Amino acid sequence: MAFTKEQRITNLLSMAQRARRIVSGAFAVEQAMKKKQAVYLLVAADAADESKKTYKGLAEKYKVPYAEGLDREMLGTCLGKEYRAAAALTDAGFAKKLHQLMEESL
Predict the structure, then answer these.
(1) What pLDDT score was predicted for residue 106?
(2) How many domains are contained in the chain?
């Protein structure tokens, strides 16, 4: 049975979480960006417009590729947390794979 794109993304993010290669939550994401540890930013599709604007600005400022996907609940769940509006991958391998998944059509 083939996994849906969404399932593959959540599985990848869960693996990154277990490997401690992802940070989530506003403060942690911002810190990872400023310290140039973030290599890919995922913003929840249902995050507040103001939050999206902030994260998009950070991503552009620090030249980190970013995408919108999943919802806050799903993003939080696959990271073992409550709701999460954003998560930043700190590992190039995970980032590359997530980017490939995000580029695939549904």
Answers:
(1) 47
(2) 1
